[in-house]
Amino acid sequence: MKGTKSKGTWSFRTKLGFPSFFISCCIFFFFAGFYGSMLLSHDISLDGGGMAGPRLLESVEEVSEVLVPMAHGETGDSNIVSIPFQVLSWQPRALYFPNFATTKQCQSIIKIAKSNLAPSTLALRKGETAENTQGIRTSSGTFISASEDKTGVLEFIEKKIARATMVPRSHGEAFNVLRYEIGQRYDSHYDAFNPAEYGPQKSQRIASFLLYLSDVEEGGETMFPFENGLNMDNSYDYKACVGLKVKPRRGDGLLFYSVFPNGTIDQTSLHGSCPVIKGEKWVATKWIRDEEDK
Ligand SMILES: *[C@@H]1O[C@H](CO)[C@@H](O)[C@H](O)[C@H]1NC(C)=O
């Protein structure tokens, strides 16, 4: 039985003949390679529309295998891209994007931000003042919009964030680039504004995308103390660095949603920045709103 089968296979091969088998292979690999390179070159030209050289805007998206793109709509992409991610948590909904930006892109953003750093400020609740909230947020930072960055890097990153979230770029605030030095921190807080505490809001922050621009030797983690319902018994000290902790790594992204799909604030999206113990932390934050940010 076994012999018959292999004999059958052999006769099929010989019928096709070695030369034609070889030629079919060549044709197959030629087209596979041709398609593959077409996809990759589309990818780079699509995203590299900024003003910087191709090295700064080099795509980190790679097509893992040869996939044939679908016919696309007027505003769609002609290529298939891959943006790898890991779900870190469903409570809050948090996603991690390794290698979202290149080292060069991160360095370029830091360079632009450095010249404009000022002490970070807080959105104040009723009864709060700059004085009585001192120490909650001790980083320095600056807001930079993509249009202000002539290198095109922020535009590139912004487009990639819009793709990863499928929330249009117009819903994002300008990038808030922050530097935390040793001992600097941000106590646990919500990015969404509860109207009961902050008064009526024109629009709501629904998600936050953090792009880590530096490695931090020790400390500086982004923490979610209420992850999966932990520590929610009113005993939590807002300075404590507990719960799910995300270690900053240069070029990596962290996306989390501050509201449920129905728009209610997700209490587990409480988060903070643990104090930097060794090194320096640089991060670019993009707050994404439920309405266009004008
Ligand atoms: C909104 O969604 C959350 C999570 O699914 C749910 O717990 C909450 O009750 C909802 N709120 C309203 C007002 O529907």
Automatic annotation (TrEMBL):
<feature type="transmembrane region" description="Helical">
    <location>
        <begin position="21"/>
        <end position="40"/>
    </location>
</feature>
<dbReference type="InterPro" id="IPR044862">
    <property type="entry name" value="Pro_4_hyd_alph_FE2OG_OXY"/>
</dbReference>
<comment type="similarity">
    <text>Belongs to the P4HA family.</text>
</comment>
<keyword id="KW-0479">Metal-binding</keyword>
<keyword id="KW-0812">Transmembrane</keyword>
<dbReference type="GO" id="GO:0005789">
    <property type="term" value="C:endoplasmic reticulum membrane"/>
</dbReference>
<dbReference type="InterPro" id="IPR006620">
    <property type="entry name" value="Pro_4_hyd_alph"/>
</dbReference>
<dbReference type="GO" id="GO:0004656">
    <property type="term" value="F:procollagen-proline 4-dioxygenase activity"/>
</dbReference>
<keyword id="KW-1133">Transmembrane helix</keyword>
<dbReference type="GO" id="GO:0005506">
    <property type="term" value="F:iron ion binding"/>
</dbReference>
<keyword id="KW-0223">Dioxygenase</keyword>
<keyword id="KW-0408">Iron</keyword>
<protein>
    <recommendedName>
        <fullName>procollagen-proline 4-dioxygenase</fullName>
        <ecNumber>1.14.11.2</ecNumber>
    </recommendedName>
</protein>
<keyword id="KW-0472">Membrane</keyword>
<keyword id="KW-0325">Glycoprotein</keyword>
<keyword id="KW-0560">Oxidoreductase</keyword>
<dbReference type="InterPro" id="IPR005123">
    <property type="entry name" value="Oxoglu/Fe-dep_dioxygenase_dom"/>
</dbReference>
<keyword id="KW-0735">Signal-anchor</keyword>
<feature type="domain" description="Fe2OG dioxygenase">
    <location>
        <begin position="170"/>
        <end position="290"/>
    </location>
</feature>
<dbReference type="InterPro" id="IPR045054">
    <property type="entry name" value="P4HA-like"/>
</dbReference>
<dbReference type="Pfam" id="PF13640">
    <property type="entry name" value="2OG-FeII_Oxy_3"/>
</dbReference>
<dbReference type="GO" id="GO:0031418">
    <property type="term" value="F:L-ascorbic acid binding"/>
</dbReference>
